[in-house]
TrEMBL record:
Gene Ontology terms, MF aspect: ATP binding; four-way junction DNA binding; four-way junction helicase activity; hydrolase activity
SMART domains: HhH1
Annotated spans, Domain III: 174-225
Keywords in alphabetical order: ATP-binding, Cytoplasm, DNA damage, DNA recombination, DNA repair, DNA-binding, Helicase, Hydrolase, Nucleotide-binding
The organism of origin for this protein: Ruegeria denitrificans
Chain's role: The RuvA-RuvB-RuvC complex processes Holliday junction (HJ) DNA during genetic recombination and DNA repair, while the RuvA-RuvB complex plays an important role in the rescue of blocked DNA replication forks via replication fork reversal (RFR). RuvA specifically binds to HJ cruciform DNA, conferring on it an open structure. The RuvB hexamer acts as an ATP-dependent pump, pulling dsDNA into and through the RuvAB complex. HJ branch migration allows RuvC to scan DNA until it finds its consensus sequence, where it cleaves and resolves the cruciform DNA.
GO biological process assignments: DNA recombination; DNA repair
Domain notes: Has three domains with a flexible linker between the domains II and III and assumes an 'L' shape. Domain III is highly mobile and contacts RuvB.
GO cellular component: cytoplasm; Holliday junction helicase complex; Holliday junction resolvase complex
Quaternary structure note: Homotetramer. Forms an RuvA(8)-RuvB(12)-Holliday junction (HJ) complex. HJ DNA is sandwiched between 2 RuvA tetramers; dsDNA enters through RuvA and exits via RuvB. An RuvB hexamer assembles on each DNA strand where it exits the tetramer. Each RuvB hexamer is contacted by two RuvA subunits (via domain III) on 2 adjacent RuvB subunits; this complex drives branch migration. In the full resolvosome a probable DNA-RuvA(4)-RuvB(12)-RuvC(2) complex forms which resolves the HJ.
InterPro entries, alphabetized: DNA_helicase_Holl-junc_RuvA_I (IPR013849), Hlx-hairpin-Hlx_DNA-bd_motif (IPR003583), NA-bd_OB-fold (IPR012340), RuvA (IPR000085), RuvA_2-like (IPR010994), RuvA_C (IPR011114), RuvA_C_sf (IPR036267)
Residue stretches making up the Helix-hairpin-helix DNA-binding motif class domain: 73-92, 108-127
Name the UniProt record assigns to this protein: Holliday junction branch migration complex subunit RuvA
């Protein structure tokens, strides 16, 4: 299983790229948001990947964060959701947006993605709501992919420097949410309650740091009345 590719970007299409890794070209399909964050043709690239192998198909899908990759894996585990629908959801919401929508039970946000009907959106939220806390707690970004021991690494013949444009994808909001979720868990709050509070706080304070998210989430978790 190929878990990450590091090489040079040889070609860009609307929904996929061709990455040269030591003379071997890999076609990798990505969400619209990931495509927009990737470097230009001829530049260095490092990207997490998920490989789908079937009797009639073998495809790679690429992600710039572990959170995005994990949501793709979980979305594809839902009945009626394939890789195309998963990428449409990630294109519409981004990994942080998917985390918030699932944690808050906001199936309407999921339904906004192309090709997702109300029944499918509701099934996604119902099936994955309990998974949101663990995914939100993940802080992996593509800058950390260079050292990830749990991933199978396919390296080029010579080391390639990281592209600046790809590094920008590592979202501070994801790290802040993960830190806030960890802090609330340490305070004894249940994973689902903590995830919902952090997600709601992140919606109202999109640029907040970890400390501000913790304070906002604690207010939401405080007993009413």
């Amino acid at each position: 299983m190929i878990g990450k590719l590091t090489g040079r970007l040889d070609y860009r299409a609307l929904d996929h790229v061709l990455i040269d890794v030591g003379g071997v070209g890999y076609i990798v399909y990505c969400s619209d948001r990931t495509m927009a964050a990737l470097p230009g043709v001829g530049e260095a690239i490092s990207i997490y990947t998920d490989m789908v192998v079937r009797e009639d198909l073998m495809q790679l899908y690429g992600f710039l964060s572990l959170v995005e990759k994990e949501w793709h894996r979980l979305l594809c585990s839902v009945q009626g959701v394939g890789a195309k629908v998963s990428l449409a959801i990630l294109s519409a919401l981004g990994p942080d947006g998917v985390s918030r929508a699932i944690a808050l039970g906001d199936w309407g946000a999921v339904k906004a993605a192309k090709g997702v009907g109300p029944k499918t959106a509701q099934r996604i939220v119902l099936d994955l709501k309990d998974k949101a806390p663990s995914v939100m707690a993940m802080g992996g970004t593509i800058t950390e992919a260079m050292d990830g021991p749990e991933l199978e690494v396919v390296e080029p013949a010579e080391p390639v420097p990281m592209p600046k444009r790809a590094v920008k994808q590592s979202s501070g909001s994801a790290a802040a949410s993960a830190g806030a979720l960890s802090a609330l868990s340490n305070l004894g709050y249940g994973p689902s309650d903590a995830a919902s509070a952090v997600a709601e706080a992140a919606v109202s304070l999109p640029d907040a740091g970890e400390a501000d998210l913790i304070r906002a989430a604690l207010k939401l978790l405080a007993p009413k009345g």
